[in-house]
Write a structure and sequence with these properties.
Length: 429
């Protein structure tokens, strides 16, 4: 390991803890951890260190996206046969690896991946972890465990869920337990369960969720669930899942159960916002949910987030980047924060803490990363604009001066012309 320190001098420190920004003298990194913040330690040999001058800039923890999919087959590459992305695992892995690099170069140093095809995400995670390639920290699930009628049960019953699908049909608790064992054998960090697409019916019973939780926890894997409906949210909280994704239709009693369980919610408003902002430009074949219904879900989520916070339920920030053509990698990972500020009553500083300190939970690294203080893992970004003055400057990596992940400066040289993220217009064309 390189023993020379990495020192970020000057600048305004937003440490991720929620504390007000302060002028900082030196952030010192040794190995992959933060050694000190505040005054430059007198014993430190600056001429032996790598020094980054952040005068006039802002220093904060690297962003974490608590909901990002790398292996759904997006983006579609020009010339690639339609719909073939996920049916060719080899090509899919290479696309996922490239997408992961794009995510990191946008200042996102960690992602939670709640579902994908094959074991693509596990493979990319390990390639990054073992130093074969650069990329964000990844915490990932495999294919979502579903029943007939759940989201990702897209084929007729006589076809089932092919191997290249995002879901895997398990129509009994025993089948679910077997699938948990298979996925744990292949190295998932957590198991993703999924209820119906929009929560209109509950497709997984509480007993089945509990069976999955018991087996996964015994094997030291966590459990998350796609749950828009009230019934499944309540059942999931009572059955002991570790976090809930969406929870759009939860009522007061359901949220009481979530608060009682002490688990966070990842509302994921960005995907809904992107559809609504496009105002009908995407057809049913693209979004698979009625736009009016999505508007009701978005409005409902504003209330859910408010009610959840008033109960002390932690809200995490996830975007669903990579789940569709108009959710490009590297672009939207901080859009959830803009939505929290604009619609849900968060201050920009609170929103930043959600995407850093709080989202560390979704990486399995709570208390280890996401706050800039001595002893924490060194994931840091430096910006040339103040994100507290305008939370939108965190989007798309446009205002990044520097990215440090796991104590190492990330080269942004790859962010060349061909690597410019897909714009909404290109994606929709
Ligand atoms: Zn998703």
């Amino acid at each position: 390991m390189d023993s020379a320190a990495l020192v970020i001098r000057n600048g305004t420190l937003i440490d991720g803890s929620g504390k007000a920004p302060v002028r900082n003298d030196a952030l010192v990194i040794e190995g992959n951890r933060i050694k000190s913040v505040g005054r430059l330690p007198p014993e430190l040999q600056l001429d032996a260190a790598e020094v980054i001058d952040a005068t006039g800039q802002w220093i904060m923890p690297g962003l974490i996206d608590a909901h990002c999919h790398l292996s759904y087959g997006y983006p579609h590459v020009k010339g690639e046969g339609r719909g073939r992305g996920t049916t060719r695992p080899e090509f899919g892995v290479l696309k996922a690896a490239r997408s992961a690099q794009r995510v990191l170069r946008a200042g996102v140093t960690g992602i939670c991946v709640p579902g994908g095809t094959w074991f693509t995400d596990v493979g990319v995670r390990d390639a990054i972890r073992l130093g074969l390639m650069e990329g964000p920290r990844m915490h990932c699930a495999g294919r979502m465990i579903i029943t007939y009628g759940s989201i990702e049960d897209d084929e007729p019953s006589w076809v089932g869920t092919p191997e290249h699908g995002v879901g895997v049909l398990c129509n009994s608790a025993q089948d679910m337990v077997t699938e948990v064992r298979r996925q744990c054998k292949h190295g998932v960090d957590f198991v993703k369960l999924a209820d119906s697409r929009s929560g209109d019916v509950q497709t997984i019973a509480r007993e089945e969720i509990a069976a999955v939780v018991t087996e996964a926890h015994r094997r030291k894997a966590r459990v998350a669930i796609h749950s828009r409906g009230a019934g499944s949210t309540r059942a999931a909280a009572e059955a002991g899942v570790d976090w809930i994704i969406h929870a759009d239709l939860a009522g007061p009693a359901d949220l009481d159960a979530v608060a009682q369980a002490g688990i966070p919610i990842v509302p994921t408003m960005t995907f809904l916002a992107m559809v609504l902002e496009a105002s009908g430009r995407y057809g049913q074949d693209v979004i698979q949910m009625d736009v009016n219904r999505m508007k009701r879900h978005f409005d409902g989520l504003i209330g859910v987030v408010e009610q959840a916070r008033s109960r002390g339920i932690r809200i995490l920030a996830g975007t669903d980047t990579g789940n569709n053509t108009f959710m490009p990698f590297g672009e939207l990972h901080a859009k959830e924060l803009e939505i929290f500020v604009r619609y849900c009553g968060f201050t920009p500083l609170e929103a930043i803490s959600v995407a850093t300190r709080d989202n560390a939970f979704a990486l399995g690294l709570a208390g280890e990363v996401g706050v800039l203080e001595a002893g924490k893992l060194a994931d840091v970004i430096v910006l040339d604009r103040d994100p507290v003055a305008d939370i939108r400057v965190l989007q798309g990596g446009q205002h990044l001066a520097c990215i440090v992940k796991d104590g190492k400066v990330v080269s942004r040289a790859g962010r060349a012309a061909e690597d410019v993220p897909l714009t909404l217009k290109q994606a929709a064309a």
